[in-house]
Amino acid sequence: MISAERLIELVRTYNPKTNAEKIAAAFEFGKQMHDGQFRHSGEPYFTHPVAVAAILTEQRLDDATIITAILHDTIEDTKASYEEVSELFGEEVAKLVDGVTKLTNLQLSSRETKQAENFRKLFMAMSKDLRVILVKLADRLHNMRTIKAMRPEKQAQKARETMDIYAPLAGRMGMQWMREELEDLAFRVLNPEGRQSIIRRFITLQRETGDVIHRITGDMRTELDKAEIEAEVFGRAKKPYSIWRKMQAKDQGFSRLSDIYGFRVITQSEEDAYRALGAIHQRWRAVPGRFKDYISQPKSNGYRSIHTTVSGRDGKRVEVQIRTRQMHDVAESGVAAHWSYRDGVRAENPFAVDPAKWIASLTEQFDAEEDHDEFLEAVKLEMYSDQVFCFTPKGDVIKLPKGATPIDFAYAIHTRIGHACVGAKVDAIRVPLWTRLRNGQSVEVITAEGQTPQVSWLEIATTGKARTAIRRSLREADRERFVKLGHELARSAFEHVQKKATDKALETAARALRVSGPEELLAQLGSAEITAHDVVQAVYPELSTNEGDEISPRRAVIGLEPGQSFERAPCCQPLPGERIIGITYRGRGVVVHSADCDTLSEFEDQPERWVDVNWHSGTHPAAYATTLELTIGNDAGVLGRICTLIGEKKANISDLEFIDRKPDFYKLMVNVEFRDVEQLHSVMLTLEAESDVAAVARYRATPEKPGWKG
């Protein structure tokens, strides 16, 4: 472990005016708080936060971020409190540490949690202060560097999470070096044989061809000297995972891959960058279609560089990136460049983006996305995407992700243009709407009055903005159907509490829920934007409380430690009356599973986490949501009868979603709130007896069938 003095020395290399006393105090506080804690490797735990802080010094970050890294696990894993950290190190640091703690508790790849909802929370945390994510990324990087001390199954889970979430997030933030290292570390865990095969082939290639990087670097320096261009030249072989990904994408073997080497030319000015491009293209033949000018068209995270691929020695292709020193700083640090210091002052880099504006542009298109799973899909699409630049007929530039279509282009101009789109011309030639756009193309959108978005457009559009606008329009078109379904759900829910869904009751609920009117209330209820329980509670809040001798859901389980909380596992949704087993989770209390839940097999080698629990005897309220999978006939009034049958059994429908629609049947998921397992069986028997119900089953989540959103 590096010492406090060494850590301060690392900060002083870029910020001589650092508050050394405060960093030293944080070091001593963190060391004291983590005293007696150890990592899986057997090292003192405090070596980890110090290593995270050291990683962030490489980004030349401010004192608050460095101190946050030192303390990032204190609130979660030690007796330190938010108030204590705030008093000792200031409110700014306390908020950052608290933000990192909350991110740590988001189990982004867990089957027990809703990954999409956690991703939304992650973006919310980013919007408050992006430095929280910088600390979290450095935390993940150090954990991946030291992952061998974990159990194999834990290594695989962390590696998949890193590959799916943290590596592309680092790339999206412009921290390409971190993305590449995270990907390679995850690749080492997930496919060690594949990685080793790449490394062995590299060694063989070097033996056969010699030091290609040294020779090409020398040749480039010679050409730049001839043109009297002052520049630095660096060369490197690409990371094993980057090569593996190219092999998979192009379906080529290693021997057929050409651009496995990359070179960077760092110039003194933007003018020299273009002169360097000319010198390189005069000396080597440029590869058609492999040129991108991110200086004139920078990426949204501030990245600027010229990319070209040329045929070098022996016909080998090499990729060259050309940029200025300031552009290079942003390329290395990405959005983090906003906080970078140089010579004791905040670096005034004209190419560093404002983090607030960057995150706002990234999340703007997701704000209106009500469906969490669709939100997650849109986020991942955006994070993995590269960009293409297309032009309107007037010459305006439209930035789109790679793979975008004319539909995306139309919505990028304006939602109204997108809605009215009936066709497109690319470079003056009429093309289908599913055509993939390429860099530099001119696109003309053809519109028609009366046109509305089609369902098939969802298969064509790739951007979050377009897909969100299309879904919203389709929802409005389905409004009449949603209002009708909302009527049935409201009637059933009110009958459940011996009340009627009168116009006055619906008006009262609309006001309480801040909805524009009863019709909008029913539309949102029918589209599952609000639940029937919310509507009833808005009118009759006293009926949602537990009366008489009903057992409160908060104390429904016995066998817990004093102050220990519990939650029902979403995979099996246990009900009172069933045998249950508790599994402890750090930061979540106890998760209660049915005794026959398949998920329990994952904890067979962790008996210390098992808790012997039981349901309280007595009467429970109908407050335990369980998902039913129904197949019903596609006839008028069938859904209404189903809702009535469930209501007559004193159970409450809290959510509903159609999974499949065919001409003769519907398949749907229904969330029903039950008192206990006996009420569940009673409802299922009643539904099975209904002639229009083809099948009814209790839904159980598995890895192949993840938990429904309800």
Task: Specify the number of helices.
Answer: 28
Note poorly predicted spans.
110-114, 706-710
Q: Compute the average pLDDT.
A: 81
Instruction: Compute the CA-based radius of gyration.
Output: 29 Å
Q: Which sheet architecture does the biggest sheet show?
A: 6 strands, mixed
Intertermini distance? 46 Å
- DSSP summary, beta strand count: 23
What spatial form do the alpha-carbon principal axes imply? globular
Strand content: 15-25%
| Structural class determined from secondary elements | alpha+beta
Helical residues, percent: 40-55%
Quick summary:
It is built from 28 helices and 23 strands. With 710 residues, it is an alpha+beta fold.
Folded structure, characterized:
It contains 28 helices and 23 strands. Strands 1, 2, 3, 4, 5 and 6 form a 6-stranded mixed beta sheet that branches. Strands 15-17-16-18 form a 4-stranded mixed beta sheet, with no helix packed on it. It has a 4-stranded antiparallel beta sheet with strand order 21-22-20-23, covered by helices on one side. The chain is α+β, with helices and mostly antiparallel strands.
